[in-house]
Amino acid sequence: MKYTKEMKLVLNRLCLLICCSLLLACSVHEDKLPIFGERTVNGTDTVYHRIAPFRFVDQDSAVIDNGTFLDKIYVADFFFTTCRTICPIMKTEMLRVYEATREMPDVLILSHTIDPEYDTVALLHDFAKRLGVESNRWHFVTGAKDSIYKIAQTSYFATAMEDRTEPDGFIHSGAFLLIDKKGRIRGKYDGTKEDDVNRLIVDIKRLRGEVAQ
C-alpha cells in the first residue's frame, strides 16, 4: 500500500499526538509524591503507614489531635524553645513555609516541643507571639514527654529524645515532614537547609494539585 503525502502527514501528526500523550501521562505520574513507611496489602487494597492517633495542647490551650488536620495538609517538626543550635534556623525556615502557604487554607503547621517540662502552654504562646504567627495556622504543641518522643520516632520517623551529653540536653532531627490529607508522610526535608525547604514549598503545591485530582 502506497502512502500519499497527505496520508504521511496525518500519520506523522498522529504519532506526534501519541508521543505527547505518553509524555503527559508520565509527567502526571512523576508529579505524585512518594508515600513513606511500610505498607501492607489487604485483599485488593494497599494499607499505607499513617500518623498514629495523638492528643496534645497548643499555645492557646486548645486540644490538638488528628481531627484538627482532617482534610488538611500539614508540615510537622520537633523543637524546643531553649535550643541554641538548629532550632533558630528551623524556625526561620518554617516561617518561610508559613508565609508561602498564607493563601492556602488547607495547609497547616504542627511544631512539637520535645521539652514539655519547660515549654509550658504560656511559654509556647509567647514564643508564637514573638514569631508573629496565627494559632489557627501554626500549632505549637506540648504534652506528655513519652507520647511526644514515641510519635516522633514511630509515626514521623524523626529523632527526638533527651541526651545529657548534648549542649542543651536534647537531641532531635531538623526534619520537616510533609503529611497529606490522609495522614500519610509524603516528604522529608532538612529544615536547616534553604534549598531543601524550597523543595518542600514546591512539593506542598504539588500535593495540593494531586489531592485535587
Describe the SSE topology.
Layout: H1 5-31, E1 39-42, E2 45-48, E3 55-57, E4 63-65, E5 73-79, H2 87-100, E6 107-113, H3 121-131, E7 138-141, H4 145-154, E8 160-162, E9 170-172, E10 175-179, E11 185-190, H5 194-212
Helix pairs in contact: 2-5
Highlighted features:
2 domains, two-stranded antiparallel sheet, globular, alpha+beta, 5 helices, Glutaredoxin, 38% helix, five-stranded mixed sheet, 213 residues
Distance between the termini: 44 Å
Give me the Rg, rounded.
22 Å
**Coarse morphology:** globular
Strand content of the residues, in percent? 15-25%
CATH architecture of the largest domain: 3-Layer(aba) Sandwich
Q: Could you give the order of the helices and strands?
A: HEEEEEHEHEHEEEEH
Helix content: 25-40%
Number of helices: 5
Number of strands: 11
Mean pLDDT over all positions = 87
Query: What do we call the CATH homologous superfamily of the largest domain?
Result: Glutaredoxin
**Category by helix and strand content:** alpha+beta
Describe the structure.
By secondary structure, the protein is of the alpha+beta class. It has two domains: 1-31; 46-212, Glutaredoxin (3-Layer(aba) Sandwich). The chain contains five helices and eleven strands; from the N terminus they run αβββββαβαβαββββα. It has helices spanning 5-31, 87-100, 121-131, 145-154, 194-212; strands at 39-42, 45-48, 55-57, 63-65, 73-79, 107-113, 138-141, 160-162, 170-172, 175-179, 185-190. The strands form four sheets. A five-stranded mixed β-sheet has the order 7-6-5-10-11. The chain has a two-stranded antiparallel ribbon with strand order 1-2. A two-stranded antiparallel ribbon has the order 3-4. Helix 2 runs parallel beside helix 5. The longest helix has 27 residues, at 5-31. It is globular, with a radius of gyration of 22 Å.
